[in-house]
């Protein structure tokens, strides 16, 4: 993986596609590195109070210290939140609800990729719970605070992996460890096989959650919350390193030689969080693997009624009804 990649588009996005966030409260999952770290840093620079939602670890402590060094005038609040544990997610939401009357932005950024076929303590696939089910739960639990904002935003993060087969109900069920195994080395190095299918399901699920939630808010007459979607393209982040460690891909794959920086990869979610001109349903990211994070036309599969049904029913079966 390239050690140093030039960031090309950060300054333009910050200057032309964000606004002053003073007085805003922004919660972001997965801020210890990569796109979440960059988003947290830039939101603080714009004046927001930033809630950092991460598992307790030396990495989370180190990244918090680094954020404070980079943005000494910024306000960062660390709240422990393990997305592989529903109880931890509920506890994190309770902490936020006790501390804040309003939440302006929830950025569901965190994710894992091509992990082994393992169950969480709750019995679900580790990728589906981390990337999708727990973000659905977190959004559900914090929805009352988002409703109190004059313009709440829910930002979901997908990827190019959304462009795969339709959703299947089994991936949302308590079948962790029984969803195809880990695949062969050849499959993993070619980004195919069961690990990558499970990952693709989660990234399409993030899209179905986005457009399914939009439908429900419209039916409920809730118009002060914007639901938005972004993708990072191919960005060089800790995600690839973690995947390589668990056997999901080659650490120094040829593909990663074509990656953009983590900063450029974060620009889609940054626009969703802070661009004054976004509208609900907007989808931001590069047109392909890398480039400027423009407004994209969502593929039909992202709002397909059957994909939305499977996602919504699967998520609610796992974590409870989403009451608007």
Features:
8 strands, 324 residues, eight-stranded mixed sheet, 11 helices, alpha/beta, Rossmann fold
What does this structure look like?
There is one protein chain. The protein has one domain: Rossmann fold (3-Layer(aba) Sandwich). Helix 5 packs parallel to helix 7 (194-220), helix 5 crosses helix 11 (305-319) and helix 7 packs across helix 11. With 324 residues, the chain is α/β, with parallel strands linked by helices. 42% of the residues lie in helices and 12% in strands. It has helices spanning 10-16, 34-45, 58-70, 86-99, 126-147, 185-189, 194-220, 238-245, 262-265, 267-274, 305-319; strands spanning 25-29, 49-54, 75-80, 105-108, 152-157, 225-230, 283-285, 294-295. It is globular. An 8-stranded mixed sheet has the order 3-2-1-4-5-6-7-8, sandwiched between helices.
Describe how the helices and strands are arranged.
Layout: H1 10-16, E1 25-29, H2 34-45, E2 49-54, H3 58-70, E3 75-80, H4 86-99, E4 105-108, H5 126-147, E5 152-157, H6 185-189, H7 194-220, E6 225-230, H8 238-245, H9 262-265, H10 267-274, E7 283-285, E8 294-295, H11 305-319
Parallel strand pairs: 1-2, 1-4, 2-3, 4-5, 5-6, 6-7
Antiparallel strand pairs: 7-8
Helix pairs in contact: 2-10, 4-5, 5-7, 5-11, 7-11
């Amino acid at each position: 993986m390239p050690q140093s990649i030039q960031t090309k588009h950060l300054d333009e996005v910050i200057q032309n596609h964000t606004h002053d966030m003073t007085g805003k409260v922004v919660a972001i999952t997965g801020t210890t590195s990569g796109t979440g770290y960059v988003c947290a840093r830039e939101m603080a620079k714009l004046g927001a109070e930033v809630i950092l939602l991460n598992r307790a670890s030396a990495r989370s402590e180190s990244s918090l210290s680094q954020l404070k060094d980079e943005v000494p005038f910024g306000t960062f609040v660390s709240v422990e939140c393990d997305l592989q544990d529903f109880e931890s997610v509920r506890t994190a939401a309770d902490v936020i609800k006790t501390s804040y009357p309003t939440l302006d932005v929830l950025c569901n950024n965190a994710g894992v990729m091509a992990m082994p076929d393992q169950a969480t303590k709750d019995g679900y696939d580790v990728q589906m719970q981390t990337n999708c089910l727990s973000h659905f739960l977190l959004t559900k639990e914090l929805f009352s605070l988002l409703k109190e904002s004059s313009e709440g935003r829910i930002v979901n993060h997908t990827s190019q992996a959304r462009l795969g087969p339709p959703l299947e109900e089994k991936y949302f069920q308590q079948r962790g460890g029984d969803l195809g195994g880990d695949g062969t080395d050849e499959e993993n190095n070619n980004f195919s096989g069961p690990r990558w299918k499970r990952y693709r399901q989660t990234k399409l699920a993030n899209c179905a959650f986005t457009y399914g939630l939009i439908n429900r808010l419209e039916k409920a007459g809730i118009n002060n919350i914007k639901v938005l979607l972004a993708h990072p393209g191919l960005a060089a982040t800790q995600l690839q390193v973690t995947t390589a460690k668990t056997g999901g891909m080659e650490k120094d794959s040829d593909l990663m030689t074509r990656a953009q920086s983590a900063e450029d990869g974060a620009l889609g979610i940054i626009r969703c969080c802070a661009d004054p001109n976004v509208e609900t349903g907007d989808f931001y990211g590069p047109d392909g693997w890398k480039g400027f994070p423009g407004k994209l036309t969502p593929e039909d599969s992202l709002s397909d009624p059957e994909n939305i049904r499977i996602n919504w029913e699967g998520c609610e079966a796992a974590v409870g009804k989403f009451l608007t």
